[in-house]
Amino acid sequence: LEELQQMVKELNEVSRIIGPTMNRTKTMVMRNEWADASPIVLEGSALSDTDCYVYLGRVISMDSNLRAEIMRRRKCASSAMGSIK
């Protein structure tokens, strides 16, 4: 856990110099069930935990369940069809 905290700190320091900066509200931590639940802190604020997130257009989750991905894509398709009409 200390190693992850150090990596986040270093990434934040470098991103402030060369950009883009880390967004504290959008940066989240995804852990498996065996991971230490201690908070990861960025500039004095604990990062939120999440069970899933969208990466390169696909929902990534710890349980590898595709249900959330299928529902997200159906919603996107429905929205796209609605904008065509």
Automatic annotation (TrEMBL):
Organism encoding this protein: Teladorsagia circumcincta (Brown stomach worm)
Protein name per Swiss-Prot or TrEMBL: Reverse transcriptase domain-containing protein
